[in-house]
Write a structure and sequence with these properties.
Layout: H1 2-14, H2 20-34, H3 38-45, H4 49-95, H5 99-134, H6 143-147, H7 153-158
Helix pairs in contact: 1-2, 3-4, 4-5
Length: about 160
């Protein structure tokens, strides 16, 4: 899909469409949101790719708010992991007078962030798939984790 989006972006830029990059980025984000639950759908429901996209779309319509909020939350957690490694890399590069130590620390931070984010992403996908099917949080999650993920704080405090 990313290849097709890049082709579309190049074609739109050749035609001098002003918002070519914006259009393709928006389509890419929409595709990522719609296909977010595709892997659990294919694996657990034994669907093919086409049916997996259709089923993922159906589940997305049931749980889009939780999906978006959870994904943003995991991205922020990744950033929180990334910031200390960036600071450490800069400090090492400056204090040790060598760029190599800073680069290794920075790359180590990126690697650690990717490993942790990938693991959390997989757990989040499976948990959200379960929630989209049953509207109940998985056993190891607190019920409020999903059902209140997209409600405003004002509504939560009225209860």
């Amino acid at each position: 899909m990313l290849f097709l989006l890049q082709l579309l972006e190049n074609w739109l830029e050749e035609k001098e469409v002003f918002f070519a990059s914006f259009i393709t980025k928006a389509v890419g984000v929409a595709w990522n949101l719609v296909t977010f639950l595709m892997l659990p759908v294919i694996m657990l429901e034994h669907n093919g790719i086409i049916r997996g996209v259709e089923r993922s779309w159906q589940l997305f319509k049931k749980s889009w708010g939780e999906q978006v909020v959870g994904t943003v939350g995991f991205d922020l957690q990744g950033l929180i992991i990334f910031i200390p490694f960036t600071i450490a890399a800069i400090m090492l590069a400056v204090t040790m007078d060598t760029l190599q130590a800073g680069i290794y620390t920075f790359l180590g931070g990126i690697g650690l962030m990717q490993v942790i984010s990938s693991g959390l992403h997989g757990v989040w996908q499976a948990a959200l798939y379960h929630y989209a099917l049953s509207k109940q949080s998985p056993a190891d999650f607190i019920e409020n984790d999903f059902s209140t993920a997209f409600k405003s704080k004002l509504i939560r405090h009225r209860r």
